[in-house]
Amino acid sequence: MQPYQYVRQLLYCCATLLFISSCQSKSNQSGNKENTAPKKLSKAEALIHETVSAVGGANALKELKDVEFQYTYTSFDGFADVSTERYLFDGEYSRGEYTTHKNAVMTTVDGVVTQGYDGNTSWVTVGNAFFEDETANKMSAFLRKTNLYWFCMNFKLLDPGVEHSYEGTRRANDIDYELVRISFEEGIGTSEDEFLLYLNPHTKLIDQFLFTVKALGIESPLMMRVKYEEVSGVKLTTYREYAPANWQGELTSDEGWTTQVSSNIQFNNGFTPDDFRSLK
Predict the structure, then answer these.
(1) CATH number corresponding to 7-15+41-276
(2) Pairing mode of beta strands 194-199, 206-213
(3) Do 206 and 199 contact (CB within 8 A), yes or no?
(4) Looking at residue 68, what is its pLDDT?
(5) How confident is the model over 109-126, as pLDDT tens digits?
């Protein structure tokens, strides 16, 4: 089976949600005036610090409390899921209400599908009834965590758990990009995926990146390209598109791009954990 046949489920099943490395320093608390020198950042770490600062800072989303937006996920052949997404950043609560689900979410079921993650467990309803299905609940667990992660990714680049390595420069789109490879420390995530970030030297933002989904047997990378919009003082990737590629950044399919679009973004809505719990 060719890797591209997995494309509709790609971003839902890429559940390696801890994309990143810590850069903590230790201070000498002994009462004398000698201080332990802070850790010297590698070139890759320094570039990632610049990127996180450029989007608003590592804590920017938590300061905005929560978010609601419309999310449209359209496959390369035109089938779409349309949901209203709600996230509470402290605790990473997640809820999605699908009024259209023709792409990857319960495509054979009629009615509004709602998925939720309450901080501990995931759940699914169709209409007003709970949907007791193991496959549907597993998919809900993937989607709720993964959708939230893609929204928050650039703000989590300094989280513990992932190592960064500098890979030189590469010219694309008339820009000489700085390349940083992301790889996971042992015990982090659920697969051995790799990411190759293209950092724009002018804006400090990630314009595109290559990544694998080995959990689905996809060893060859996909290219993700993004566009930003500033909302409430933070820069968000409100448009994303991906297609099969190679590690040189060349596309390997002419079937088109799968797209993800976030719109009508509203922060600080006053959501609480109760808004993400099932009523079962």
Answers:
(1) 2.50.20
(2) antiparallel
(3) yes
(4) 98
(5) 999 999 999 999 999 999
CA 180 to chain CA centroid, Å, is 17
Among candidate residues 231, 182, 197, 225, the one with its CA nearest the CA of residue 56: 231
Nearest to 138 by CA among 270, 256, 9, 275: 9
CB-side neighbour CA atoms (13 Å) of 270? 0
- Cα gap 157→177, rounded to integer Å: 18
Distance CA 28, CA 91 (A): 31
CA-nearest of 266, 272, 273 to 67 is: 266
pLDDT score, position 188: 63
- Contact assessment for residue 86 and residue 95, using Cβ atoms and an 8 Å cutoff: yes
**Cα 134 from Cα 103, distance rounded (Å):** 19
For the chain, the structural domain boundaries read 7-15+41-276
Distance, in Å, from the CA atom of 118 to the CA atom of 35, rounded to the nearest integer, reads: 43
Report whether 206 contacts 197 (CB < 8 A).
Answer: yes
